[in-house]
Design brief:
Strand content: 15-25%
CATH superfamily of the largest domain: ANL, N-terminal domain
Bound molecules: coenzyme A, adenosine monophosphate
Number of helices: 18
Largest sheet: 7 strands, mixed
CATH class of the largest domain: Alpha Beta
Distance between the termini: 53 Å
Amino acid sequence: MTEYRKAHERARLTPGDFWGEAASLIDWVSSPDRVLDDDRPPLYRWFPDATLNTCWNALDRHVEAGRGDRPAIHHVSPVTDSARTISYRELLDEVALFAGVLHGLGVRAGDRVIIYLPMIPEAVVAMLACARIGAVHSVVFGGFAPGELAARIDDARPKVIVTASCGIEPRQLVEYKPLIDAAVASATHAPERVIVLQRPQCRAAMGPIDLDWQEAMAGAIPHGTVAVRATDPLYILYTSGTTGRPKGVVRDNGGHAVAMAWSFANVYGMGPGDVWWAASDVGWVVGHSYIVYAPLISGATSVMFEGKPVGTPDAGAFWRVIEDYSVNGLFTAPTAIRAIKREDPEGALLGGRDISSLRTLFLAGERLDPNTYHWASKHLQVPVIDNWWQTETGWPIASNMRGMAPMPIKPGSPTVPVPGYEVHVLDDEGRKVAPHQEGSIVIKLPLPPGTLPTLWGDDDRYIDGYLTANPGYYTSGDGGYFDDDGYLYVMGRTDDVINVAGHRLSTGSMEAVVAAHPLVAECAVLGVHDDIKGQVPRALVVLKAGADIDPDVLSAEIVLAVRTEIGPVAALKSVIIVPALPKTRSGKILRKTMRAIADGRDEPVPSTIEDLSVLETITPLLTGRE
Ligand code: COA
Ligand code: AMP
């Protein structure tokens, strides 16, 4: 038995022993006696009787151990032409001070704080300051518009919002404050204060509840760490579901800290002193776990990059950063590599760069297509490791265990289930299928530490959405299969979630915006293949009888509405008027059939379909063969 199989079996058969040992990677205020609380299935809790502070584990303990001068963050910002290195001690000082600011505003353990910041160190400061006083942060990605922000404000009910005057995108400066003002104006819940970091590139107009970050910090008293229960929430991260309403994925303190430390070492093979770069955004789960918590809890250095893989200034930006900061591990999304490959197909910009510090490239966020895998392997000359996971799990479900037992790589597969995850593939009747047969990918309960214990304020939605379709299992929403060697292949979502440039989006929420146009009778938004972004949304609309509008005008109006309601990240660029949508005889729109066509899958045409000619009209639109 390989070391991997032994570990996987131990975690499966004796999870209490396995995760009890892993818990020694963390400093506890009061150590766990009980590892797993399984009194209330299907809901489980890890380390129910323990207390700790996550910020202590990320910062104070390293400084106390005499490692305060080590770099915690290299902030590299080609979009502002600046760079800054922050030591563990400096980061701790800033975090303690900002924790004092929040405390001074009345924020206490359990209170929520929404963070809407670009990729600047202050985002990490704000997150860790919340963790320090036991407050619950909810970071919202900057590419979301006021409508999405307002939905999160109403669900999380934050006491305070933390933002900046602007974010800097390669093609434009995005003023954040007007977006916050619009969201606060339309939300039902009223936050008490908005803390605004004024960036030199743009000054935000301040209103009655606004507070300047610098001024607040100048008058603040540093705050110490507050012990919380391991089961208390550390953060809420909203993610797209099949309906328009975003789901607040809850992360606890204790299980999460253990999972971060364990996965950084065992999955990614990284440790104290390593320079690690997760080229994502703090607004996504990859950013939470692997820009902020895992590297800092583990005492590594985290590179925080404000820019894009291409265009800031060119497609060689990634290689330059690896050389300049001697990066040991890079983690990004396949779409970033495809964007680089399009600009620099022969890898010419790697020429003359010394990237010998790089040990591994990790890719996640969407399926790693074999072409991208081969290109990256050939040009970087390091193992290219696919890993599959979700906002809900917070860390990899399937990967090649680089720190434990590296295995041969098979392009197209994220390798094997990580210890702690018992993964199965089920058919529509809930039966386990044979190797190579595709089905729904599920994980046997309980999920390991660090995964979601529930959805914010909504146990029922968690149980209905994830734990009911296949009793005893967590249904991932992804489809795929195992091969004969136990390698997992993840082929794509089985629901209405799409993945655009590594960003997870709900077609349901886009459909709600499109359907609100006064001339639209009905619509369907589907993800269609895109060479760079993997998928892009395309809206098919049927006009109301007698509607008379120039298609370009209609398209512009709908694209603007989606941008304003959901945000530029939705990247809806294409609206197509069609005479009808395929429906069953009882009038139900056949979204599953259209999705199968868009994914290039051969799905049998349902016998209940009303009008087969509609399929002939829409097929070229969905497969890009117009
Ligand atoms: N704040 C404000 N606007 C933002 C934003 C932010 N934080 N992030 C993205 N946007 C805007 C962009 O400016 C763009 O607006 P535009 O339509 O006016 O040009 C739009 O949202 C779409 O952005 P994006 O999806 O990033 O597309 P892009 O064409 O600018 O870049 C990639 C494409 C592939 C280079 C880029 O998406 C990328 O680097 N992806 C990596 C994905 C990733 O990190 N995923 C996380 C999982 S690992
Ligand atoms: P998110 O919650 O934003 O991390 O998105 C999670 C979804 O992205 C998963 O449910 C998958 O559909 C997809 N995904 C993430 N990583 C991979 C991967 N390595 N291979 C295939 N799909 C992936």
